[in-house]
Amino acid sequence: MGSLIVIAGILLAALGTLPVFPAHSLLVDLFSHFVFQYLLAACLLLVLSLALRCWRSALVPLLAMAINGSWLLPYLPTAPAGENGPRLTVIQANLENSNPDHKTFVAWVRRRQPDLLVVEELSHTWLESLAALDELFPYRFLIPRSDRFGIGIYSRLPIIRRERRELAGFGLPTLFARIQ
Question: Where are the alpha helices (DSSP H) in the chain?
């Protein structure tokens, strides 16, 4: 059983290194997004190896936990949320390019009154419908597309820095923005 734990741990450690490599393959890009799940699996392997008293084998899941956990460290909170600081309301929505019910979504956004609206699958048809929100969001950074990879940021606050990048080498847009 110890050798199976070692093999599984090595696999989880190897999968945890995928985000380091440029995604020239769709599979590499796909499998690089699951470091949290790899971390959980490594934790289970560690518990299993300890329960079976496979002490040396337990080192491999620990290595896999370290590699996968290192990717998650930047996402841990570093300070408690402030009670008196500014609040920002964000809605992130996948518009579903084929969804014909644009009016319901626009009405829902009007009721919610977010500071930021980030949308995926922004098509030219959706762009026309979302123009009804122009007075609510005077600042916009939009890349509509005819496929399912359009994206956009609508903001009540000034967008002071904007950048479009194409990550992972697939020609798909990614937006980076700094809001005032």
Answer: 2-16, 26-31, 35-51, 59-72, 102-112, 124-130
